[in-house]
DNA sequence: CGATCCCGCCACATT
DNA sequence: AATGTGGCGGGATCG
């Protein structure tokens, strides 16, 4: 089925159809439509594409059992894929899958198959643990429920728990926003702190003697309880999305229970909590020990929560043999210490769970980003941040009722993490409405971050890195890999490499995507998704601090005098362009027509202005998700950003702007077209900048140094020996002319010829550089050239990482597929973009490349497979 | 038989 | 009033 779907998908995509729930689901792209309440159920019918949809419909018509089965099948498959390890389950699933309709009778899905835990895994499998970009994936409960084939009620169970950990937040009626685990540690840290206050003592007691516990409980409950609740409530509001409404609802016991439950673990020295103890503690408020029924109910709920937490890989079931006998208990296997509040995708699961979500997080690109963040945070941010934390905490400690103020404060707390701060900031910028006040405080912090790191990361690296690119053909690629990663790791994980390298080397297999320009970023935002948007950008920033730095540097270099101002106008212009962009994409058809079907769809996409959604999806599951949201961003955001910039003339604003711009711009404008190698061209991959900028050639010309590279040609795998070097070409996007794309094309061709020679090709903004050309020219950080370079470098780095690992980086694959299926949509680009700088280009390119390399495999691989791969990757 | 926990009724909250 | 949320616990299933 998957395969089937996919093949269709590609062609479909261009067509555009939001309605394709199923397809989307498979594709991994959820969100996209903020639209919420669309009922998926209806859609299936309309959508001819997904065979599955039709099946579902039919099934639904049939007996409920059938329906369930059907649903399960769908669900399970993805799960299976995602979870390689689950042999047991998988077997069962397989059974199910294989059998078609007939089967349903054979065995009604065992209860286990319907377990909340499993469902939760499925659910989590749909979203990246660490969504790269800023975007926020919106989760439609209806959609998810239908996809997973369960009643909505069950989704609530999951979402409520996730919400308690801030993995998601409720945005609107039927919609939740996916945050991923970025803030998980922070949340846990907070819970731990609160837990210490509330339950610390009790837990200690418990640990030793349960019996006494009860008594003490009762005593302390009274005292602690009130506070705890408050705190809990407070916690809830924190989430980025900040759905202001919040309180009113009766406290959702499940959420609070979940938080309390987690607190117990965090407070517990043994990290093991037995259900009964937890139940007792949780009953707290109610009455001590009174109703047995209550206790029973509580336990039931705890099971629900435990299932979700287990799926998250935070706890695992164990048995504690105590005095009388063996009691069910759960052991905390998640992160225990939350030092900086940094989120460590990898570290958090020492236990090695096969959690899909976690695994995804592990993607190389992600990791990189994460690393960067962490380091970042620790270093620069620390100074500024800590004070903030202290302040915030005080506030948080305050038992105040949950008011917005609190939220703000909480937010600020949360902000401690650089990442968090960044996100918020961006959000604010983009969505002033949402949390403008709150955001303000964090901003300065960000600026600090950005500022400090920038200088170091950006320039210093250059010299060292540069040489590597120049390396001989075969070697170069490898060398790059090594060097790049090292560079990343070096220092604070900043992406120094990127900025520095003047040229990008593409590994043989590699990629080609170049993201170019940038300022227009805002354009995308034109799409008014929902208020959520802001978060995405923030995330992206967080993820890509280095990039930001680089960008800043660029700006400075290029147009130190009036970076911000210039940009704004540029952005505007770009926005104008945006519409154009899609068209531009079309350009490179001729040679590539032969290209894969994928390419074709792209063209189609190009034609379609709003393809964005598709592209996003295509890009990478994760990215796509994020992308959707981003795309949704309203134009306003641009303005906001501008404003913010103006407000903060200093680095922060500009940096942000840059980032956002770039992000936006790329996605917004599908500047590059990736052409898969056809038979003749097989060896070469081309990226064409569709958009404007032909004029771009002149680097200096635009006040705003844009990254945009007119065209990039990447050698195919066969060419592996030949590295491509791309000097970032700068285009002046200001006057985007479709014609420009052509110019780019021409340049590409030119480069192509050079490639033929087997020597590594270097594409300079203006001219082609011979392989050995010294990077020096670009070396000057100040020169506009740098700007592009960093981008390229990033892409390279990303590529490198991915390409070598190949298998290991499922994420990439996903991205690739998406792109392939979907034409260049701005969105696609965007997501990558966020990550940054590093990933973006690389990811894109990777995708492409991989496709080529793997070709059939990747393509053929169903979405499910993709997911699986991802999951596999997650382990790191 | 106890541990789990699916299922979905039904009340309350929102729209 | 309709629909979204989610408390709650009967009772099925698992071990």
TrEMBL record:
Signal peptide: none annotated. It comes from the Eukaryota. It is found in: Nucleus. Residues 111-180, 249-334 form the E2F/DP family winged-helix DNA-binding domain. One of its GO terms (biological process) is sprouting angiogenesis. Pfam families: WHD_E2F_TDP. One of its GO terms (molecular function) is DNA-binding transcription factor activity, RNA polymerase II-specific. Residues 639-664 have a biased composition (Basic and acidic residues). Belongs to the E2F/DP family. This is Transcription factor E2F7. It comes from Bucco capensis (collared puffbird). The lineage of its organism: Eukaryota, Metazoa, Chordata, Craniata, Vertebrata. The gene is E2f7.
């Amino acid at each position: 089925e998957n395969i089937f779907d996919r093949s269709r998908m590609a062609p479909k995509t261009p067509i555009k159809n939001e309605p394709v729930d199923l397809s989307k689901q498979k594709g991994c792209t959820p969100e996209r439509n903020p639209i919420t309440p669309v009922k998926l159920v209806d859609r299936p019918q309309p959508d001819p594409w997904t065979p599955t949809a039709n099946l579902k419909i039919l099934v639904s018509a049939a007996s409920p059992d059938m329906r369930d089965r059907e649903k399960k099948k769908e669900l399970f498959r993805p799960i299976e894929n995602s979870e390689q390890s689950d042999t047991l389950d998988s077997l069962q699933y397989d059974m199910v899958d294989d059998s078609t309709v007939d089967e349903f009778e054979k065995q009604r899905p065992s209860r286990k198959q319907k377990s909340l835990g499993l469902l939760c895994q499925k659910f989590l499998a749909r979203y990246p643990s660490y969504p790269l970009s800023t975007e926020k994936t919106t989760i439609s409960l209806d959609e998810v429920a239908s996809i997973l084939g369960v009643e909505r009620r069950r989704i609530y169970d999951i979402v409520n728990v996730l919400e308690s950990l801030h993995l998601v937040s409720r945005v609107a009626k039927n919609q939740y926003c996916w945050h991923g685990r970025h803030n998980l540690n922070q949340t846990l840290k907070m819970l731990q702190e609160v837990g210490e206050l509330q339950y610390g003592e009790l837990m200690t007691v418990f640990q030793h003697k349960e019996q006494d516990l009860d008594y003490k409980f009762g005593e302390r409950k009274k005292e602690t309880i009130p506070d705890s609740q408050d705190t809990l409530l407070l916690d809830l509001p924190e989430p980025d999305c900040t759905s202001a409404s919040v309180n009113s609802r009766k406290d959702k016991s499940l959420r609070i229970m979940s938080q309390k439950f987690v607190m117990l673990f965090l407070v517990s020295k043994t990290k093991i909590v037995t259900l009964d103890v937890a139940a007792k503690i949780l009953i707290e408020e109610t009455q001590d020990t009174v109703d047995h029924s209550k206790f029973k109910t509580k336990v039931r709920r705890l099971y629900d929560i435990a299932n979700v937490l287990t799926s998250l890989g935070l706890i695992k079931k164990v048995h504690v043999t105590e005095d009388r006998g063996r009691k069910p208990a759960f052991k905390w296997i998640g992160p225990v210490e939350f030092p900086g509040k940094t989120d460590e995708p990898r570290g958090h699961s020492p236990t090695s769970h096969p959690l899909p979500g976690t695994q995804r997080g592990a993607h190389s690109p992600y990791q990189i980003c994460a690393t960067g963040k962490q380091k970042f945070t620790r270093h620069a941010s620390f100074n500024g941040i800590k004070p903030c934390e202290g302040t915030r905490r005080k506030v948080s400690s305050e038992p105040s009722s949950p008011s917005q103020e609190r939220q703000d404060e909480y937010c600020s707390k949360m902000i401690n993490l650089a990442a968090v701060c960044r996100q918020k900031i961006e959000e604010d910028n983009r969505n002033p409405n949402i949390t403008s006040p709150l955001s303000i405080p964090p901003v300065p912090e960000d600026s600090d971050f950005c500022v400090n790191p920038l200088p170091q990361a950006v320039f210093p690296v250059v010299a060292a890195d540069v040489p590597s690119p120049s390396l001989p053909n075969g070697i170069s690629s490898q060398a790059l890999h090594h060097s790049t990663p090292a560079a990343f790791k070096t220092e604070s994980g900043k992406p120094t490499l990127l900025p520095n390298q003047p040229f990008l080397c593409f590994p043989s297999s590699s990629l080609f995507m170049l993201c170019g320009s940038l300022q227009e970023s805002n354009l995308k935002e034109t799409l008014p998704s929902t208020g959520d948007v802001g978060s995405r950008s923030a995330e992206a920033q967080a993820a890509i601090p280095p990039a930001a730095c680089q960008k800043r540097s660029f700006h400075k270099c290029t147009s130190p005098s009036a970076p911000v101002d210039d940009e704004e106008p540029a952005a505007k212009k770009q926005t104008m362009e945006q519409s154009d962009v899609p068209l531009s994409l079309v350009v490179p058809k001729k040679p590539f027509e032969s290209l894969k079907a994928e390419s074709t769809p792209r063209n189609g996409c190009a034609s379609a202005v709003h393809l964005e959604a598709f592209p996003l999806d295509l890009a990478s599951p994760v990215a796509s998700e994020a992308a959707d949201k981003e795309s949704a961003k309203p134009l306003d955001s641009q303005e906001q950003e501008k404003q913010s910039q103006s407000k903060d003339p200093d680095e922060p604003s500009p940096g942000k702007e840059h980032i956002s711009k770039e992000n936006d711009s790329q996605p917004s404008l599908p500047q590059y077209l990736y052409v898969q190698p056809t038979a003749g061209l097989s060896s070469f991959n081309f990226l064409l900048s569709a958009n404007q900028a032909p004029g771009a050639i002149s680097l200096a010309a635009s006040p705003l140094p844009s990254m945009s590279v007119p065209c990039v040609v990447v050698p195919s795998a066969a060419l592996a020996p030949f590295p491509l070097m791309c000097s970032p070409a700068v285009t002046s996007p200001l006057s985007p002319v479709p014609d420009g794309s052509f110019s780019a094309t021409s340049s590409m061709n030119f480069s192509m010829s050079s490639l033929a020679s087997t020597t590594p090709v270097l594409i300079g903004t203006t001219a082609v550089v011979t392989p050995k050309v010294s990077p020096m020219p670009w070396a000057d950080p100040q020169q506009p050239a740098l700007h592009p370079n960093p981008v390229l470098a990033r892409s390279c780095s990303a590529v490198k990482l991915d390409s070598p690992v190949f298998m290991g980086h499922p994420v990439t694959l996903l991205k690739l597929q998406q792109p392939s299926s979907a034409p260049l949509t701005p969105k696609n680009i965007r997501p990558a973009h966020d990550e940054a700088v590093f990933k973006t280009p690389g990811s894109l390119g990777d995708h492409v490349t991989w496709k080529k390399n793997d070709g059939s495999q990747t393509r053929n691989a169903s979405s499910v497979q993709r997911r699986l791969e991802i999951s596999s990757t997650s382990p790191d």
